[in-house]
Amino acid sequence: MSMDVKQTPARKVEHYVDPTPFNPAVAEEMTPEQERFYQASQWKIMWWKFKRHKIAVWSGVILILFYLCVPFAEQIAPYTANQRDSLHLYAPPQQVHFFHEGRFVGPFVYGMTSEIDMDTLQWVFKDDPNNVQRIRFLCRGADYKFWGMFTSNVHLFCPAKGGTLFLLGTDRLGRDQFSGLVYGARLSLTVGLVGVTISIVLGLFFGGIAGYFGGILDSMIQRMIEILRSLPELPLWMALSAALPVTWSPVWIYFGLTIILGLLDWPGLARAVRSKLLSLREEEYAKAAVLMGAKPGRVIGRHLLPGFTSHIIASATLSIPSMILGETALSYLNLGLRRPSVSWGVLLNEAQNISVVTVYPWLMAPVIPIIIVVLAFNFLGDGLRDAADPYK
Fold this sequence. Notes:
Layout: H1 24-27, H2 32-39, H3 42-51, H4 54-67, H5 73-76, E1 97-100, E2 103-117, E3 122-134, E4 136-146, E5 150-158, H6 177-213, H7 215-230, H8 233-242, H9 250-263, H10 266-280, H11 284-291, H12 296-304, H13 309-332, H14 344-348, H15 354-359, H16 367-388
Antiparallel strand pairs: 1-2, 2-3, 4-5
């Protein structure tokens, strides 16, 4: 059975070609904000994302203020770090006032009178309301050697002439606690930076070798990292710190501590670098560099590591608090820095006796800046990590 099928002729479709040249910039209309975003560099995008993390921004501001104590500790502190006042042993903090008998005087403190308590055999200090001691600003006080280069005596603020200014009280030898905190920031804050620098160098070196070459080198480095990470951290710090010669000067003890902290902190960063390089080494630009004859050091340093530099910075920022706490713990246990060096851990060493702390609670003042700095670094690291994440 046959059927006749009518076939309709195919319709001719006209082919149109736009004669105007193609311009990819205007192919898709973008808002000025989109165009600004797509043309920005990686670091600029990271900065825009970081600014949206308000807590991280304020944490960065707080850390900048703390780190100003590092170069200008002599000018900020009203006393030198080890200056003693034998008449004010365990003196309590002096409160700053602005009004005296209803009249504005400006920032001042009341002078202190002392008498011995025959029951407890302790000195008792009381404010003398008739002795108003105005705080001087941009004044001349105790002499110091600025950065070990020249002698000066200019301070940001000073006690009244013949008066006292103990904002956070004094210790058992009459040393000002506030001045000790300012000077202690120089060592406690820089130990983290120097230690992290050592950690980054070692982490990039061993992590780069393990991630790029793989094989037996990767296995050896991973076993070494596992051994280091299996050791308890604090006892290992204590053992290595106790091995430092007691005859070393405070400068050598400081560098010895930073090297110890840096040597024990690099395994975590090395593993992060290894995991990144294992994925990045298979990218086309890395293979192209190898085919063009680039040496492994150049491929790793110029092509692979810059791809996650922001992540390295965020990881390093999160490592600094642990190093600050490590130095504080070692100095608190008399295994780190000692007088005449001053750090926050050295100041806390005065508060080892709980009976002393209950009577003189201001000896625990170094705990406050330690908590603030550690929290600020953690918030800053979280903000940097979020800003460096390309998928957020």
